[in-house]
Amino acid sequence: MVTPRDLRKPPARERLHATVAEELEEQILTGELSVGDRLPSESAIAQSFGVSTRSVREAIQVLETKGLVRRRHGERTVVVRNDVSHFLGTLAINLHQLFASDPAYLRQLMDVRRMIEVEVAESLARREVPIGPEFSQALAELRAAADSGDHELFAERDAGFHAALVASAGNAVLTELYRHLFDLIISVIRVSSRVPTKSLERAYEEHARIHDRIASRDPAAAAQAVREHIDNSASYLEIALRQAQEKDD
């Protein structure tokens, strides 16, 4: 059944389609909506979620891009599901549940990110071809977010930078994995950003250093920049988790 599960507060207007897409995606990945099932009409979904049909169309477009549904003119949208996307999406849902039961597992996510991103940065710096414009654009968006002083926006752009870094490697499985882990990575950034001593400017500079060392074709320096950045983030995460524990006690 296509229904919103737990909207504790109305989502921001620009997030409406994303909220609908996330809800529908979860229902597909958990099997509540099976391959071959047809979604209700756009108007029915819009009424169910209390959003406009435009938001529903945008949400379905997101799902189509992910390989989860197929649209044909004059027919209702059908669930098709890409197998790789399904596997990684299910993995991401299981990880969400794991971290919800014990936030301390976020430390292990940082370890995974360190292993992946250090290798990716080093590999990119060895290549003779220029890094893609998406990676540089992600850094520019991070700069704008830092200038705005909006911590929530910065967290999203921060995660976007790391997703763009991994996508630049051209490995479809890694790219898909990071796309599914996007919300978890944002959660880590949000938690660590609660530490008062962490500034947006310093965080931006760490990302700029990663970008510039990859662009300058220095593999060792690029790997070190990523390692230092994630180590710093892990330290802030430890402080934030400790503060949360002390508050609970």
UniProtKB/TrEMBL annotation:
Which domain of life does the protein's organism represent?
A: Bacteria
Q: Which InterPro entries match?
A: GntR_C (IPR011711), TF_FadR/GntR_C (IPR008920), Tscrpt_reg_HTH_GntR (IPR000524), WH-like_DNA-bd_sf (IPR036388), WH_DNA-bd_sf (IPR036390)
**PROSITE patterns for this protein:** HTH_GNTR
Q: Which UniProt keywords apply?
A: DNA-binding, Transcription, Transcription regulation
Looking at the record, the residues that make up the HTH gntR-type domain are 14-82
The keyword DNA-binding is annotated on this UniProt entry: yes
CDD domains the record matches: WHTH_GntR
The molecular function terms in GO held by this entry are: DNA binding; DNA-binding transcription factor activity
One Pfam family, short name please?
Answer: FCD
Keyword match Zinc: no
SMART domains per UniProt: FCD (SM00895), HTH_GNTR (SM00345)
Q: What is this protein called?
A: Transcriptional regulator, GntR family
